[in-house]
Structure formats: structure tokens, C-alpha cells
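Bumping with the actual sequence this time:
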Amino acid sequence: MPSDNARDGSRTTADPGGAPPDRIPRWLRDPLVVFVLLGIGVFALDGWLAGSDTARPVIEITPDEVGRLRARWIAQWGREPTEPELRTLIDQAVDEEILYREAQRLGLDRDDAIVRRRLAQKLTFILEDAGASGPPSGAEVEEYYALHAERYRRPGRTTFDHVFLSGDSRADPAGDAAALLGELPAGGDSGDDAWQRLGDPFMLARDYADRSHREIAGLFGRAFADAVAELPVGGWNGPVESTYGVHLVRVNGRTPPRAPALAEVRDRVAADLREDRRREQSLAAYQELREDYEVRLPATAAGTESVRP
């Protein structure tokens, strides 16, 4: 007689033409159990990795770094470092790297105005160097000079002598200057040096050659420089007031302002052109970085928030 198992299709024996029996326990098919087991596994793996990672951070002083240390020593002291001195330099470099890494780990580089400014300055230099291009062509230099000719204009220059009359030692220096003017030769003969014995002692020179308006103003004051610029060439004139007192002045020569030929200033023009290009390319690179940030500024006087994209 057929057995019960035969009648119900043999649930415990694999069907030769069907799937193998399900041998995974039912509790392992529960999603919550699977999730818990996976969590335990990840936690155990993390602990194992942390326990096995006993290697310390590496500080490597490369031969190139040693070469830079040696070069800095030679530049400062004018000789090669001895072995103990070089060892000290290397030890100092290691100490500096350790302190630097620890300072970073503690976040000491954050919220420090000096560090922020230095890093920003360093990135600016990098942007400028990245934007540096080759030397400009001759045509580019000529075009740049034509556009900025006023920048290279040579100022007018004046050669003059003066007699000083001090307000500290005279009751009426301007009146004395007017009286003294009659004793000086009216012509432009600068070969007669009798004028040098007239007037009062002066802390600066009594004669000046080829001085620009700016240089004269720096020595005597702007009012004096403006007055000298209006004096005719040849003969004594005055009185002219300065920051020191009163002067009689003889202009011996005057060179008008002029625009130099490009050949005279070509190197300067080329250097200025390269600098302008580098600055423009650096600014363009910064603008690209700037577009990646949204800047929110404090509220304006009208009470609205200012936002720059």
C-alpha cells in the first residue's frame, strides 16, 4: 500500500524535475533580523580595522627638502652647513611639520585673520603666476605705448640758483630781499659766484640742476615750485616764499616736458604690459571662482538684505 508520503507528493524528498527544498530557516528570512545582523557585522568590521591600524602618521623629509634647507643656510651664512648644523635644520623642519599638523588637527588655522590673509595672498600669487604669459611682441608693445603715452611722459626740469633770507633773523625778509635784488646782476650770467656770499646760511644747497616740479616742491613746498615755474630764464627774480622763508631765484635753464621715444622706454613699457596682463588674467580667474559662491551681505539702510550671486 502506498505510504502517506507517497500520497502527498513526497514533501521531504527533492523532486527530480523541480527546485531543491528550502533549507534557510524561516527566522533568517525576516528583514528585521537581516538588518540587525548586517549592523553587527559592520560594527565588528570597523572595530577590527581600527584595532589593526596601529601605523603612525608619516613625516618624510625628502632629499629635495634637505637641498632647500641647505640652500637657505648657504644664502644666510655664506657657507655649507656642517653635519650637526644640517641635522639641526632637519630636526627643526620635522618639529615645524608636527606642530603644523597638530595645529590643523585642533583647528587653529580657522578664525585667524593672519592665517586667512596669508592664504588669500598666496592664492592670489598662484592665480597671477598661472595667468603669466610669454613676452609681448613688438607690435603689442607699440600699441600699449600709444595707449598709455602720458604715463611715460618726461616732466619738465629746471636749473636754478637762490639766495635765502631768513624770517627768524630778519624783521622784514621780503623787504630785505627786494633791496638785495638791486645789488644782484640783472643778466643771466651764472658764472659770477658773488651771489653765493649774500643772504643767510641755508641748510640745503644754493643751486639745483635739472629738478622736476615735484622734486622742487618736495624741497621747498608747492607754492615755491609753482612760482619758480613761472619765472623767466635768466636774471634774478623775487622775492619768492618757501616753507623756510624768502628767496631770490635765478632760473638758468628749463627743459619742457616731452614724450620719450619708444626706444628709450621699451623695457619699461614691456614690463608694464606684462604686469597689466597678469593682473587682468588674475582678476578673470578670481571672477570665475567668485561665481561659485553666493555672498550674503548685512542688511542695507533700507532694511533689505543685499545678496550677490
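The C-alpha cells above came from a reply further down the thread. Residues 262-290 form the longest helix (29 residues).
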